[in-house]
Amino acid sequence: MKKIAIAFVLTLLVAVGGFAQVDRSKLPASGPAPEIKIGEAETFTLDNGLKVFVVKNDKLPRVSFTLVLERDPILEGDKAGLTGFVGEMMMAGTKNRTKDQLDQEVDFIGASLSASSTSMFASSLKKHQGKVLELMADVLFNPVFPQEELDKLRKQSLTALAQSKDNPNVISSRLSAAVVYGKNHPYGEVETEATINNVTVEDVKSYYQTYFKSNIAYLAIVGDMDKAEAEKVVKQYFGNWKQGEVPKFTYPIPERASKRAVALVDRSSSVQSVINLTQPVKMKIGDDDYISSRVLNQILGGGSASRLFMNLREDKGYTYGAYSSIGADKLVATISVNASVRTEVTDSAVYEFIYEIQNLVENGVTEEELAKAKAELSGSFGRSLEQPATVANFALNTDRYKLPKDYYATYLQKLSALTVDDINATAKRLIEPDKFIITTVGNGAEIKEKLAQFGEVTLYDNMGMPAKELTADANMTAEKVLETYLTAIGGMEKVKAIKTAKISMDADVMGTPLNLAFVYDSQNGRYGQKLSVGGNVMQKTTLADGKGSMSVQGNSMEMNEAQLAEAKLNSFLFPEAVYQENGYTLTFDGLKDVDGTPAYKVIIATATGAKLTNYYAQETGLKIKYENPASGDTFYSDYQAKDGVLLPMAWTIKSPAIPVPLEAKVTSMELNVPVTDEDVK
């Protein structure tokens, strides 16, 4: 018993001593990279050049077919938007089936079937694979491209384009592409109303006939099918697909800026700035720096533990998230860092971006950062292998990028072997901190001068084109702009003669009828606004007796002082007639381009800081645009005389609360009529 006790104590002392020798201030050393057993895709090529990859997975009775066309990027020019129509046009009916019949047959077997300008995808239960392949082949070989489908797609595309012009994130992407690649590069060109309207059915047919050729196609089959069966069904459904000569294109590689510069889109209604620092990079999968660039990006801005995220969000609180990306593309890609930040910290955020980029290049990464990044990337790689489609994608990439056969099997070994010196060398080779273009979408009046410290500021419009340089009369003031406007609509005397108004407007949002009703009572300081959908009041605003309230779907709340001040700015039918007597501050901000119309910009502010911005056409003096950070932008047109005063009968409202621009038309307007308390409630 004594011997047992002594043995227990000795064992305990050894154990304690062992624990005491562990240095918990350091991360445990990484073990050797595991050997990856990636299931190989079996492959074969048809006589017509179609390359097929098969990844058998019989865990579920399903099978999917992914067809990819390997063509060069296309500069669409005056028909930009064409390739976006091709897939939907192919799915709009065949020589054997109408669109409705095709959709019904796909739905009946619970399958998926889709197409784009460079791919097709089909998926179904194993027992329905013959049917889904029949449908896929019918779409691939027998599309009819109906004119009515193009008309519908064109309308949808134009609506989306109109919406995108007021989306700061889309504007930022468009601007970044324009300044990095240029408008004469496939990655930099922009769709416009003109280019979309230029696309014809014949253009779509010509594209299809030119590029849908078997000799540039890959087919990946994933699911409950082996190679022998795949050879049989692929020959059956795709064996007669014709080869053809496909055009090749080359484009100059965009050069980096000679020095740091700023590209700014002035969006006055923005309460945030969308920032993106970007420069082109020549990088494709398989390049010597490719894997090390993944590690580099992970450390810089690849997630919530990255330098950018920890600095701009966790430390400074400038944003919800700050990220980076180092792209890879057969042609050219970009290095970018980005975030959306509060307007007042825009310049501070840019400073931190530049600091982090310079610090990374000049001082490099740490062993601890490298270990964490490797662990994160290894885990992500491992999880991706759970999807059979990953194996097929690896096989496609191996062929398309001419990679070594064991490239993905040895991926973790290559990742594990990277050292701090490797990552630092990659940073110095890829990144030039003083040659980034800083693209920013935000309130120019608040941020333009602050951004000038980082480089020359060039203004762009919301389509990524250099903004038109407009010069206002040197003697023009905000007061003169308002005076001209009041004269243009009928004169101060007639304007002030209108004491009350009731206006009703009808609109349509994606097939849903809406009604906007406004009640103005300038004599008694009362205002009412209602938004009704299908006859039901969804939202309303009320001002009366010096107080204000807002209601959304029956839930009401009283306005605070700042909200009340802002609401009062919007409560006058002719606010320009009362701005000065109500103590509002007016700021003239020059001559701007409003969708092709030169217009004077005037910023109106209350003592509490509430602001709105109006634009008045230089030629006519009429108000053509109103901006409000909370409610969005409103464009005014179709001015008509009512009681001797010109009033806009058409409003286009672009609000963050609605998915598409709202085209509202005045259906009734009553001026100088009695207004009761009930009218404004």
UniProtKB/TrEMBL annotation:
Q: Where is the Peptidase M16 N-terminal domain?
A: 78-180
InterPro entries reported for this sequence: Metalloenz_LuxS/M16 (IPR011249), MPP/UQCRC_Complex (IPR050361), Pept_M16_N (IPR011765), Peptidase_M16_C (IPR007863)
- In this record, what's one Pfam family? Peptidase_M16
Q: Which GO terms describe its molecular function?
A: metal ion binding
Q: Where is the Peptidase M16 C-terminal domain?
A: 198-377
Q: Which PANTHER family does the record associate with it?
A: METALLOPROTEASE, PROCESSING PROTEASE
Question: Any idea what this protein is called?
Answer: Predicted Zn-dependent peptidase
